[in-house]
Amino acid sequence: MKKIHSITIAMILAFSVSQFNVLAQDKQEFKKNTTKKEVYTCPMHSEEVSDKPGTCSKCKMDLEKKSSDKKDHMTAMMGNPFFEKSVEGLKFQVWIQTQDDHRKHMSENMGKMMGKHMMEGMDGSTMSKMMSGTHHVAVKITNEKSGKEVGNDLEMQIVSPSQKATSSIFIKRHKHFGNGISLNEKGTYQLTAIVTLKDKKSSKAQFNYEIK
Description:
CATH topology of the largest domain: Immunoglobulin-like
Radius of gyration: 26 Å
CATH architecture of the largest domain: Sandwich
Shape: globular
Number of domains: 3
């Protein structure tokens, strides 16, 4: 009886070791098959993609290693978007900051995120518009299928708590539209972002913003 018991234990141990080896091999194969290739892209031109380090053919900037958890420029500088919505295959993202916070973040990130390539075309008049009013608004619009930024022009229509209607033509910047706007009244504002695409079609997204 003891002999049979010993043989049974030995068989169980052998089976366990065999299963462990199979699991270890499967795990190794899974890790091998799911290893992601490194991707490098230009911070100025997202369409410039390579599987190795190099420079952008358009602006000669160094390609940066792309990571799935790496924050994009706007999120890294201004945090998560205040408003986000999908409309007719387009993804609208809106960031809103007081101008005081905007100046602070501009100052903190100027060196690493607002280099000379990103500052091209940012003359005194453009900078003045971006820093005007009480709040800075940035709008990023991407094609949900391709992930690429889209839009030729963007208008922001604003209805104040007292129902006064104004509008602002936003400035096209690096991968987003931006401008300064005045939100001087306390209460809830209704804002509508209207983007014009290359084919002259337009799309819009509406949201509210409260001033306390």
